[in-house]
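Archive entry. Fields below.
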Amino acid sequence: MYRLSMAAMSVRASTQKMLLTTLLFISVAILVLGKADLKLIQATSDGIADGSLSVLSLLRKPIELTRDAAHTLGGVLAVFEENERLREENERLLAAQHRAVLLEVENEGLRELLQAPRIEQTRNFTSAAVIADTATPFVHTRLLDAGRNRGLEPGMPVIRPEGLVGRLLSVSERTARLMLLTDFNSRVPVVIGPSGDRAILEGDNSSEPKLRFLPLQPRFAIGDDVVTSGQGGLLPPGMMVGKVVHIDEHQVSVRPNVDWTRLDHVSILHFEPITHDSALGDEADEIFYGPNRLQPARAPDSAASTIGEEVPGE
Amino acid sequence: MMDDWLQGHPGDMLGRLLPGLTGIVALYIDLLPLPSAAPDAAMPSLLVCVVFYWTIYRPDLLGIFWIFALAMLLDGIAGLPLGLSAFAFLVARNLLMPRERFLATTSFIVIWASFVIAATAVLGLRWIVACIWFGHLFELRPVVLELALTVAVYPLAGYVLSSTRDFLPKASHVSGS
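PREDICTED_STRUCTURE:
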């Protein structure tokens, strides 16, 4: 009897070993096929994310409620300080508005002088909630609860009232994956004001992306604003990105304006890339998505649509 | 193997699913967008704690199929290369398999020390494979930070998981899927 039981255990152990080896082999095969850009693997990954949408949405509710309660309580406790801060901010905004009016008048005059055509951009947005935070040391992405069903396409810029957050890396039916500015594959052409120096803002998985391909004699300084340049046509120009916070011989760091602690909702800008089908298209994709990332599939023309929701807080 | 699952009281069936369900809960908690100071803020991996715990105490209820499925789910939602976590978890499971009986009866300090080795294997392997897959040498500091947090949180996770053991059906053997 004892011998039979030992034999059964031995058979079971060898079956286990064989199963484990098979599953290990399957894991490696999926990894290799994923690297080879097999569409089935990408579709499986998208399907898993779509399937988890309802569970993730449900689980984030208590966190959202707790956070809102904490913010409300904090707001009540700090009402006087908040009032003072808003008063100061109001004064700053009024001064900025005055400057903006002056610049608009000046801009109009210069346009007429140069007979430059006016570029009209309709800004349409879709709002989405962040439902999953990857929190891995390898990729800085977030999962959003909107996808093709809300007219989203890969490559669309994702923003908050404070500035650019990143771009959509991939879009499935009900979810989309947002690649943050800090992801090591993120590349954004920027201009540093007021010097007007152009560069590429490159993520490196730290909280402060770096400026690359700077001019030979840069003129910017610490504290200067960094905005999108619109070069390549994949992002609209003039979107706030962050501020230069560190300059040394080897690198220039930029701190994004985005408040990461409040990254629960984002707005996706419906922006049609200007040079998508031109010769620059592939080159531009390489700039924006980096050499290591699977490039997003081009969205079909029929999927292009605008929704027209407002940016929260704007 | 399937016979084992169908045998017994219906309550046992639910009990048999409990370790897998704790794995799913841990996975979703790991992925929740909790308020963090920066995108590079490190978080502990509760899934590593859960998989280790059940691998020691009830490998028959959280078998390799469960581990494979949980890891694939993690990769799919987190946007990691599919198969990355599955590979790391299965290799670590392979390392633990011959020692699970010893660990199930030893002191907590030895278990915790073994957990450090197992978690290092999972997170380290994931780092190595990710470096190869992306063709990029990722910084090791965030991995070490994640490991430290995971090791620190294990006693609490173990305590919570031990309270669910009363609801599990009795073990007929300790090695299985």
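CURATOR_NOTE: The mean pLDDT of chain B is 84.
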